[in-house]
Write a structure and sequence with these properties.
The protein contains 7 helices and 16 strands. By secondary structure, the chain is an alpha+beta fold. The strands form 6 sheets. Strands 11-12-16-13-14 form a 5-stranded mixed beta sheet, with no helix packed on it. A 3-stranded antiparallel beta sheet has the order 9-10-15. The protein has a two-stranded antiparallel ribbon with strand order 1-2. Strand 11 and strand 12 form a beta hairpin. Helix 2 runs parallel beside helix 4, helix 4 runs antiparallel to helix 5 and helix 5 packs antiparallel against helix 7. It is globular.
Amino acid sequence: RGDVAFAATCGEVRASLATAIEAQGWDGAWYRRGYFDDGTPLGSATRAEGRIDSIAQSWAVLSGVADPRRAALAMQQTDEQLLMPDEGLLRLFTPPFDNSTPDPGYLSAYPPGVRENGGQYTHGALWSVFAWAQLHREDRAGAILAQLNPVNHALTPKAVEKYRVEPYVVAADVYTEDPYVGRGGWTWYTGSAGWMYRAGLEAILGLRREGGDLLIEPCLPPQWDRVAVRYRVATTIYDIAIEGECPIPRHVAAVVLDGDTLPGSRLPLTDDGGIHAVTVILETTTPDTGALSGPRQSRRSTAASRPPRG
């Protein structure tokens, strides 16, 4: 808007906040969720209940503000402490609140392991899919989304009996404590469905609309070597084939539109009423030895990626 002075002030506040978060928000292996009024930390290893919260770890990555090494370690702790792989669940935090002092507020009115009180709160759990994708962890992003997919909670009669709710819609929450581990909560009343759709389209398939372009940055599961997508823009159809027959981690090597190779990984969108063929070719990413080692980060900057809005 041309308000240079206010933009400068925002930049100063942002820098100050980032410094404060790194100094006071880091708990040693993950980021704290916040503080009680008396200064007691929330989401800290010093606490018997609510020790680690998934939202703080996901947004450490998605914000682009956190130290990259810390953010990667925080996501690793999310996997180790919050994921229930055998049950296909990802807890909001753990342990749930039961006898906590100070009182964490309304969420402790739910029984332990139900809804926000340490259950799988699907809306927040889906942000971890975006975070793993932004770290270019193809092995983790797809696996987490598959676990959150309600269809995979009803593949057998035994699973149906445990889940007990419709497997064709997204449950806002799933219980994580005995004797109700794996039971679905509220369905048909959730914004989680929209986030799950976005996680599949934007985080995994890597198709994100930016103005008049389609930014293409797939984070396909390792076992996926080819994906076909029909993308509609008003009266125009783009048939997109993503070819990734190479080892992970992978990045976009070329985007071909109707036989012509485009510069970069952006597809300009035009509503001309036609049907266009798009081929996206992936190749194995060369590790950046100057950044994070191993498969946790590719040569592309995680801080440069734009976090989801919503």
